[in-house]
Amino acid sequence: MRTNPHILEINTRAWLARLQAKHGRRFALHEIPDQYWQEIKANGFDAIWLMGVWKQSPKAGEIARQHPDIHAQIRQVDPDFKTEDITASPYAVYAYETAEDLGGDESLKVLRQKLNAMGIALLLDFVSNHTAIDCPRVTSDPDLYIGTSDQVPHAHKDWFFQNENGQWIAHGRDPYFAPWSDTAQLNYFNPKTRDFMISRLLKVAEMCDGVRCDMAMLSLNKVHRDTWWEFIGGELPRTEFWTEALQAVRAKYPQFTFIAEVYWGLEWEIQEMGFDYTYDKVLYDRLRFSNSENIRGHLGAEHLFQMRSIRFTSNHDEEESLKAFGRDKSLAASTIIATLPGARMIYLFQMLGRPARVPIQYLKETFEEDTHIRQYYEKLLKIASKPAFHGGQWALTPVSPITEEDETFRNVLCWTWKQMNTASTVLINYSDKPVSCHVKLKAAGGEGKYLREEFSEIEVLFSSQMQQQGFSIELKPFESKIFSYDI
Predict the structure, then answer these.
(1) CA distances from 87 to 17, 64, 91, 138, 363 (A)
(2) Mind listing the pLDDT tens digit for each residue in 182-228?
(3) What global pTM score does this model have?
(4) Which residues contact 302 (CB under 8 A, 6 or more apart)?
(5) How many CB atoms are closer than 10 A to CB 474?
(6) Which domains, from first to last, does the chain contain?
(7) DSSP 8-state class, residue 155
(8) Which of 232, 321, 322, 376 has the fewest Cβ atoms within 10 Å of its own Cβ atom?
(9) Which among 48, 138, 54 is positioned nearest to 93, based on CA atoms?
């Protein structure tokens, strides 16, 4: 993949259901028409994260179809939904085998070969914290899990369930939320569990080019202890699971890509264990809830951290960007993440203009594609695929007020990419008011050169006066301009 790769997340089953409705037939993974992969390649994506290809848990499917919260969330978007359109959570993994209704492992292998031949990497899910509640290992190897054997748990009984042999096993959980009732919690203080999960990860690594590791921080020693100390004690293992796991995979697959979903300020710690990219949820929250000044402050972080962050304005866990941000702000936010250092992740349904999120267990996606939204993303991705945005040097660029009284320049985010003899300067008004500012492009070529504004494709003659004194820019609410030029 390129430096600062573009990654497309696809909710596999929901997308295939949408294709089935369009084409009137079901598709295995290798049967998906080539036109869709060609469109993805033309839009400049380096990798596709196919979310949810693993063998499904029958029990997790039952739980989802009966879950009142899932019903309530779906009803907000589709009041007339049918429970038959609800399936198991992709994060209650039954087995790391490609689901048979998706074509099985051979279908996935053929698809991977096709994508790799096009220069596209295939990314899949790896869930370290837990398995499905009915994963066969829950009964055959209960010591892999946190549990109390035949004894009723002495505390938090509602966090546990009984397997087929009557042994008490904990549900997977995040310490800040109720347990996930369709999962079973693995015990990373047991070396046998580590060995088992590393073997699962090595199996997955044979099938793809990288993994997105779900809730990766839950498998850190300190987090694991603090979440489960009443049942596993407080003495920490000497090594971290992720250190062992990444070393094992990289020994066999040196170029394998690891992406961590991680929060709570633990991003740098996870990066130091060898992960290529970690979620930048802080930037997402600042884009959604804060202002330009705070966003600019976040972008002043250490450069290596920036390069190893994965940025997004939507994914399967977050509210759809159109609803979360509003239409114009969502496009401005996406322009920000698409032109920063690090990996840039776009959710397929975000790109198609889905108006609101539904639970990932719900497969019926009947929203009408928003042509304007899709065209904006296609244009943005084309611009952000220029070499400077991948092989160049990035730096924040200062802007100044046009007049002493005008404070609107503070709402402008600006940075420049430089590579060899070309550069691109990005200006984004991240506010709901018109702004004006003054910017100097010190490295821009001299008299007779042109600035090309990429969205409008308008070229402006660059004078020596502009080079020396800079030039003024006016931006509408949430408008972006990207100027490319020779240096």
Answers:
(1) 12, 7, 12, 21, 7
(2) 999 999 999 999 999 999 999 999 999 999 999 999 999 999 999 99
(3) 0.95
(4) none
(5) 13
(6) 6-131+188-390 (3.20.20.80), 391-486 (2.60.40.1180)
(7) S
(8) 232
(9) 54
Whether residue 303 contacts residue 451, with contact meaning beta carbons closer than 8 Å, is answered with no
Confidence of residue 483 (pLDDT cuts 50, 70, 90): very high
Distance CA 164, CA 143 (A): 14
* Residue in the block written with tokens 């899990």: 145
Q: What distance in Å separates the CA atoms of residue 387 and residue 424, rounded to the nearest whole number?
A: 10
**In what helix (H) or strand (E) does residue 130 lie, and over which residues does it extend?**
strand 130-132
d(CA 38, CA 118) in angstroms, rounded, equals 8
Of 21, 24, 5, nearest in space to 369 by CA: 21
Going by DSSP bridges, is the β-strand pair 210-214/121-127 parallel, antiparallel, or unpaired?
parallel
**d(C-alpha 378, C-alpha 346), whole Å:** 11
Helix pair 34-42, 104-117: axis angle to 10 deg: 40
In DSSP terms, which residues pair with 459 in a beta bridge?
452
Alpha carbons 461 and 464: distance in angstroms, whole number: 10
Count each helix (H run) and each strand (E run) in the chain, helices first. Answer: 19, 23
| Pairing of the two strands 449-453 and 412-419 | unpaired
**Apex CA 258: angle with CA 316 and CA 249, to 5°?**
135
- 10 Å CB burial of residue 408 (0-12, 13-18, 19+) is middle
Q: What is the pLDDT of residues 48-82, one digit of tens each?
A: 999 999 999 999 999 999 999 999 999 999 999 99
Kindly report, residue by residue over 351-396, the tens digit of the pLDDT: 999 999 999 999 998 899 999 999 999 999 999 999 999 999 999 9
